[in-house]
Every structure is written in C-alpha cells, then in structure tokens.
Amino acid sequence: MAQPPSTTPENQGPHLRQPTPRRTEISGQRTRGIRRRSLLAGVAALGAAGAAIGCSRVPTAEAAGGGRLLARLRKKGSVTLGLSGEQPYGYIGTDGKMTGSAPTIARVIFKRLGVPHVEPFPTDFGSLIVGLNSQQFDVVAAGMYIKPDRCAQVIFADPEYQMLDAFIVRKGNPLRLRTFKDIARAGARMATGVGYAEIDYAKAAGITEITTLPDQLAGLLAVEQGRVDVFVGTAVTLRNVVRQSRTTKAEVTPEVTPYVNGKPVIDVGAFAFRTPETNLRDAFNRELHKMKRSGELLDLMRPFGFTEHQMTEITAKEKCRS
Asked: How far is CA 268 from each of CA 2, 25, 80, 190, 303, rounded to the nearest angstrom?
C-alpha cells in the first residue's frame, strides 16, 4: 500500500495528517512534465463515476450499537472502495478497471458477507481518511498502514500484510544507498510519495530535504533522469514497478528496515472503516481470519508480488498501541 512530505501530510502505502499541497519541483525542475504511464489510467473518468455512485450515508443515530452500514450495503448490493492508485494495493489498471490486492480481497469477503458488487472511488492517498469520514465511499481499500494517529480517526480491520521498505536508485547504486542513514550521510536527494510513512522514517534518520511525487512511476522516472538520487517506498511496490518498466537505468535495492527512536519498524496494512461501523469491521475480520488460516489470503495476494514473508498475525489493536 502501502502508508507525507517534509512539508508533510500523513504517513502511508503504501498512511493521517491533513493533506498539504504537493511540492511540484525537484531541484528547480517541475515534475508536471512527468508522464504517469499509469497505474492511475482511468482515474479521472472513474473518479467522476465514483462521485455518482451512491455511498451509504448513515445518520448518526443509526451508528449506535456498532452501526448499520453492513445491512445497508446488503440491501443495496454493492460497496464503494476508496483507492489511492498505488501498486500493488488498490489502483486502476491500464484497462480502466479496478485491480490490486485490496480490491481482490474485498470482492471475495464482501460477496461472502452478502454484498456481491464492489465499486471504485479513486482519490489521492492523502484524501482517503477525509473521504471515508465524509462518506464519499464506504471502505478504504488501499493497503493503508496502521498508525496510532490514524487509529484515532478510523477503525482498522486486522492487517492482511506486513511490509519493509526499499529504494529505487540509479543502476549500480553508485551512492551505495542501503539504509536511511546512508541517504543522510551521502546528502542524497530523496523523494517519496505524498502521505507515505517513509517521510517520518527519513526524518528519524536525519534526512531533511525530502521531495514528494505523485506516485512510484514518477519516482522511477525522476531517478532515471537524475533529478533525484533515490525514491523510497514499500518493497513490493517498488519491485513491481522496476520489473514492469524494464528499465535499464535504475534498480531496486534489497529490503530496508526503517528505525524510529532506535527501534526497527515493520509496517502492516489493512482496510479502514468509519469509526461507528464496528459491526461491519468485525464481520470483515471474521472472513479475513478464515482466509488466513486456509491460506486463501496468500493465494489471492501472490499475483500482486506478495510472498509468505509478507503474511502476518499482528492485530490492529497491537499496532494502534505501538
């Protein structure tokens, strides 16, 4: 998913502070010329369509006792998923259709909960929690990292994956960037995505100059063109992007463990729900845990680059406390 800039919004993923405007320059060069070959293809059209999709607006009185959203979704026959356009979590493919690990999981679970159809609502990562709580869509399906500040704004299902980071660097890794500390020591020009958790990890390592870009494809292009030295993101995401691009100018490093206050951090990502809707969250969790026990969850996620190493038994409650 995949969890903000040095002028930071929030932390990702794949991540909530209030969104801030994106920085659009790298070393004085504007990034608007970057062509997003896109995992976001079709976002504009689907965004407009998503706005027309009726979201399940639940009056406050109905939220008592765990909420009634699940019953309303069953009656309507569909659920609207908030996506942020990031591989491999939740995005619009080049064919204009919703794909990713989270929508794939959502299709299976919601069908078992009596909700046969899932609909996309593409938006920026930094707008996901705001959009969820303003009832633009029903669920965040973007591999969002569970963070205590987010736990104060939404409720999370238990995570479907755990994740370390990686770097996109120039071919051969000339600056030998293998840790966040290496970036700081080298004075390397670092970029990451808007709302990504990696911003906080970079700051903890002493990195002060951080540029934010729209997505990992923009990051790859910036590294290829020499406008930044390193783009930082989640390991599975960056591996997929580098492999699919067939670039000869850049590569992805082995996995990188971030540290905060001297302690290693392993992030986990999960679906997010509006705070009153505990009935829906609990029903979702029951199906998710069945899929974990049977191995079905890994089978669904494997095509998106996940391995057994990314499976986790950590709970949302544990991560909200950490």
From this structure: 9, 31, 23, 23, 19
Main-chain phi, psi angles of 296, to 5 degrees? -65, -35
- pTM confidence score: 0.74
| Token pair recorded at residue 71 | 């019953």
Question: 190: part of which helix (H) or strand (E)?
Answer: strand 190-193
- Amino acid identity at 1: M
Query: What amino acid occupies position 152?
Result: A
Angle at 271 between CA 74 and CA 150, to 5 degrees: 125
Classify the phi-psi angles of 158: left when phi > 0, otherwise alpha if psi is within -120 to 50, otherwise beta.
Answer: beta
User: Which H helix or E strand runs over 26?
Assistant: strand 25-26
Where on the phi/psi map is residue 77: left (φ > 0), alpha (ψ -120 to 50), or beta? left
**Tens of pLDDT along 91-109?**
888 888 899 999 999 999 9
Closest by CA to 126, choosing from 23, 18, 38, 270, is 18
Instruction: Kindly report the length of the chain.
Output: 322
